[in-house]
Each structure stands twice: as C-alpha cells, then as structure tokens.
Amino acid sequence: MRDAYLVGAAQTDFGSFPDESYRSLFRTAFEAACDSVPAGIDPDDVDEAVVGTLGVGGRQLGLSGPAVTEHVGLDGIPCTRVENACAASGYAVRQAVQAVKSGMADVVLAGGVEIMTDTSSDATKYWLGVSGETEWERLSGTTFAGVYAQMADAHMEKYGTTAEHLSRVAVKNHANGAKNPHAHLGFECSLEDAMNAQVVADPLTLYHCCPTTDGAACAIVASEDVVDEYTDDPIRIAGVGAASDRVGLFQRDTYTSVPASREAAQSAYEMAGVTPEDIDFAEVHDCFAIAELLAYEDLGFCEPGEAGEFVASGATELGGERPVNTSGGLKSKGHPIGATGAGQMVEAYKQLSRTAGDRQVEGATRGLTHNVGGSGGAAVVHVLEKESEVEA
Amino acid sequence: MRDAYLVGAAQTDFGSFPDESYRSLFRTAFEAACDSVPAGIDPDDVDEAVVGTLGVGGRQLGLSGPAVTEHVGLDGIPCTRVENACAASGYAVRQAVQAVKSGMADVVLAGGVEIMTDTSSDATKYWLGVSGETEWERLSGTTFAGVYAQMADAHMEKYGTTAEHLSRVAVKNHANGAKNPHAHLGFECSLEDAMNAQVVADPLTLYHCCPTTDGAACAIVASEDVVDEYTDDPIRIAGVGAASDRVGLFQRDTYTSVPASREAAQSAYEMAGVTPEDIDFAEVHDCFAIAELLAYEDLGFCEPGEAGEFVASGATELGGERPVNTSGGLKSKGHPIGATGAGQMVEAYKQLSRTAGDRQVEGATRGLTHNVGGSGGAAVVHVLEKESEVEA
C-alpha cells in the first residue's frame, strides 16, 4: 500500500481563551497548518477531513466535524468526527493515514479541538470523569487524577519509584515548555516547586498534573503520489500502531504498565521496521507525571521499573540521549483533549523539519508520538522519519 | 487497492428496552452478526473495530468504542468511535472499508448503538436539537422536525408535492416494517392514519416522523484476501461515497435537495461504475417522510420534483421497479441514531444473500444504502453487489 506523509502541521496557542470559539480556534490551527507546508497548499487540495474532539458536545453534540470544516472553507468534503477520549486526534491522524493508504484520498486533514476552560470546575470534573470508566470508577467517586495516582502508587511500591522521579518529569517538561511560545504553562518550575505543591491525589501534586486547556491543532497528511507537490524534504509516517484495552483500570491485569501503549508501540515499530533505539525523540502522553514514566517503559526506552532512574539520569532532557516532550508535553504545553494528538504531530513536524528553534533536537531524523485515551483504554503510536536521512 | 466485502451483518430488535444497556445491545448485535457469516467467524479474526454512536455520551462520554468492544470480548484491538450525528455508523462502515483497503486490517467490525428512550422528552428534544446546528437553529427554538418541515414546505411550494405524497411514504414503510420482526413500529398504517395524525411540525404529522428508538447493529467487513474464508457468495462493497455540507439548513443554497446526498451518491456510483438504474433496492434515510422523497431525487431514482409522483406510482413498494426501505426504514423499523447506518447494512445483507423472507426483493443483485447526518450536514452512500451475479 502506498506511503503516507506529514506535509504540514500547526497549532494555536494552548491556554485559556474565553473570547475564542471551537470554530475560531480550529480555523487558526488550520490556516497555520496550511502555511507550514513547505511549498504551500491550496485548501481545495484537501480531499477529506477527520476531526478529533471529546467535549465540543456541550456546544454541538453531533456533526462537530462538519461544523468546523465548514468554518474553514472545506465545504463538501467527507468529514468524520472521531473520539477516543484524550487520544481523539491521535486516532484522527491514524484514520488520515488509512484514508491515504486506501487510495480513497490523496490529501487528508487530521485536526483536533477542545474548549475546556469555560466549564465550572464541577462540570470539568464530571466531564473528565466520564472519560474514564463510568459505571464503576466515576460513580464511585474516582477522578482521573485518582486513577493515575493508583498507578503511581503501584509503581512506587513495586519498583521504588519516588516522588522526586515524578517531579523530575515536571521540571523537564516545564523547562521545555518555557522554550515553546505556544505553551499554556510556559514557565520553568523547580524540583522544590514540584515536590512541595499541593497534593491533588496522593502521591500526585499539582505539578504532576496537566492543566485544563483550550486549543486546536491540525496535521496535513498526503500520499506518496502527491507529496512532491508540497515538499522536497518529505516526512514519512512510517509506522502506525493502535490498541484498546479495558476502559476501567480496575479491570486490567497490571497497574504498572499501560498494555495498550505497549501493543500500539510494538505495531508501530514493526510497521516502520525499527526498534526503540532508532527513535531520536518522542512526544509522549504525560497527562500525569506517572504516565510519562510508564510511557518510557511501555515504549521500550528503558526496562520495566527503570523509568525513575531514566528520567533522573537526564536521558530524556533536551541534549540527552532521547529527548521526550520537547514541546513541554501535556504538562506544560497543555492538554486540550481533542487537540493533543494532532498537537504532538506539530512538535514532530517541527523537529523533523528542523524548525524547532531553541528546542531543536540535533540531527532529529526519526521521532515517535504516543497518545493515550482515558487511563489506557486506547492508545495510538506513530513513528515519523525524515526520508532524506534514513536508510532505504 | 484491494476490494472490501460485507461478510455478515445483524441487528438487535429495535424498540424501547429499559432493561438493556448500550453494552448488552451491542453484544446481541455483534453475536448475531458473527452468526450471520455463512462459513462462521472466530471473533479473534476481527482486526479492528469502528463504533458509531451519538449519545452514549450520557453514559460514557469518552471511549465508548472500547467500552462496547471490551464487552464483546474484542480486547486489545484498535477501536475508534466515529460520529456524524444520525450517520455515525454509516461512516463507521466507510471507515471499515478504508481500513481494509489500506492494507492495515483484513477483518473490521463496523457497529453502532444508541439508547434513546430513557431520556425525558425534554432531554431528547435538547439532545436531538444539538445534532442540528446549535448556535442559530437550536438556540432559536428550531427542532429537527421543524427543520425537515421547512424542507417539506419548500418542496410542496416548488413542485406541488402533497401531504398525501408524504403519507404514502409512511404507508409503504409501515407495510414493509410489518414484515420485519426487528421493527420498532412493526404495524401497518393506512393513508388516513398518516394524513390525519396529529401535527408535529406542519406539514409533518406524527406518521411522517420516525420514532425514538433503542438498538444496535453490526456489520463485518473483510478484505478480498480473506473473504473466501467466510463465504462462497461474496457481497462486494463496490462503491463508497461521502460528503459534508453546512450543518445549518439556513446556510445552504437549497431547501429542496440535500446536496451532500447528491455528492455522496455520485461518488459511490462512480467508484462502483454504475448508475441509479443499476440499483435493485435501496435503504434510504427517512427520518422524516420528506427525507425519503428528497432521497429519491438526490440518488437519481427520479428527476427533481418528481418524488411525490414516484412514490404514488408504487415504484418504491415491494414488487415495484425499485423497492425502497424494505426493512421498514427509519420510520417503521426505528432510528436508534448511532445504529441506523449499520442497520441499513443489515437489510442490504439480507436482500443480497436472499434471506429477507417476506420482504425479499426478487433477484436482488445490487443495493444501495444512504445515511444522512443532521439535516444534511453529512451523508454517506454505499453500493453493494452480489458478486456472483454481476458482470465482471
């Protein structure tokens, strides 16, 4: 089947935007994504659109896909909304790849959008609660922070992971986010800040939790038949993997790993013909600090149980052997649910087109994105590579 | 790209089921779909799932795809929820076709589910309202019946379509639904019943409107590389077309046609290499009686303005030249939003495998399904054919 390429990607600022609508945010991201295509793109070239969003529901329960594409002038094209909680637009990108590989489309827009900050905190809690398992988790009072706290507890108990390890994730991601003009919380935090912040769900402090964020992001995927029209330095989506799991954490065999991430990564590596050692940088799903540590292990960047030491070693910092979340991650860049997966593509695109500025990973040739829905009910992994610099 | 086939499809009874959950309904449909595969299927053969649903949101806002696939034992496979209002699972089938054609999956489950009858009528009205255009239609008090009433008014004014024409749709579809043991309103209605029923939104009476329904439906799509394992009489998904449009009716150029249906049909015919004359039967989106009349015209079964006479001629009745909604359609079979598109596949599968019993269209060789989201913000059309009986 023919190859798919990432020919452009961009995002809005992530933050709190009371004067923006989901449509206006999507439009800003779409226009910037078109502008990011090296040889430019005529929006009329877009054959199809896939839009990831969770909660636009509050405004437009049905047809929120066409509701945003009509606003950016993409009238008439096939448009589908996809949703897998926080992995909505990671799955939108995957569906764009399938559409291209199927031969049914040459250029596909994969975008995502979320407005979160205009809900009351009770509403947000409810809203996020229902993205986990509803019947047995939310209705018994378990929050998302509570679910991830259980995973952190289990990892600390089994492997000796510490609060300092969790805090180092926050320090690293805020240091990166401080270099990202689009970040929601674009400031640095110290280890002390992270360790001593108020407890949200023990052992997770405020700095171990991502913020509630508004934003949109768009990625443009093109087939091998047309990629040359848009760039002379193609970025290939070499591997795609996805997996699902029991929606409720309590129904899984392990609390110290996210099996869906593990399976998705394995599929993506296999399809791309690479191993974790071949990955130069990664954007991983750090909705809570423990999630980034689990990702290191599930993606094969280190052995099970070693993630705490791995982050403490500096390996995943900018300049380390395998920088992770150079964008700031969900922690510092922000986590507008439906936009997060496409937002990860934005950082991968910047890194592989060597336009990441102060955050540039030197010689970045192959990157990975990792987007998780809920506490691991769904996961999707992409491997992207700068075709001119990888061996055929 | 390789061909995709419909190797099985089944649905639950459609109706009001206070003792069922969305998970239990989906399970019933999935197990029946597996049972409908001629040579049988091991559920482990399913590589991927796509689930269409609108309102499971009330129960499980995020991850409702994995929430149902885990319940039927499809642990671990990639699973995505898609939503395009009432066309949710029509798009799920389309995505299954893309997944198969992309080479990333050999067997894909495309299902849909909705529970609607447990909401209060105010909630249902709100809920359905937000599937239309929210900002300018719903917030000004326009209901879905109101939107379709405007279309009916316009068609009557422009073409002389009559209340009797609308009522003939209801009479025909109830006559068909009375032959379908899965139908929600499986009883006949007379022309007088339909004409004289209470007005819902003038000129639409109660019998011109589909009911509020619970139900689930599943379709199983397989690639040409594995289809022989499941059947020796393959039903090919020969054409797929989809299009979007302005979500709000007031933003479109015409009230007497659904442009997205027209474009989707054209794409599907082109891909299948057929014309409307080649279609032996069709399941069309008759959420309101006017919608079926518009479909006749938009799908090319008759000329613009002639739909009223077309239904009055008996052409679309069982035994007519082109039977439409032999299942009973949304009107009589019922319209559990997320399940409707996959439910249309069930009737197409029955007709083409010649297992439709009293509703069998003699010699049915090529059928069409037509699923609309909102008042035409999205539409998806499939053309299916019994491969053994069509010319190569």
Automatic annotation (TrEMBL), chains A, B:
Query: What's an example of a GO molecular-function annotation for this chain?
Result: acyltransferase activity, transferring groups other than amino-acyl groups
Q: What is the lineage of its organism?
A: Archaea, Methanobacteriati, Methanobacteriota, Stenosarchaea group, Halobacteria
BP GO terms, sorted: isoprenoid biosynthetic process
The domain of life for this entry's organism is Archaea
Q: Where is the Thiolase N-terminal domain?
A: 5-225
Q: Which Gene3D superfamilies match?
A: 3.40.47.10
- Organism (species): Haladaptatus paucihalophilus DX253
In its UniProt entry, what is this protein called? Acetyl-CoA C-acetyltransferase
What are the Thiolase C-terminal domain coordinates in residue numbering? 241-386
Show the PANTHER family listed in the entry: ACETYL-COA C-ACETYLTRANSFERASE, NON-SPECIFIC LIPID-TRANSFER PROTEIN-LIKE 2
- Keywords (A to Z) from UniProt: Acyltransferase, Isoprene biosynthesis, Transferase
SUPFAM superfamilies attached to this UniProt entry? Thiolase-like
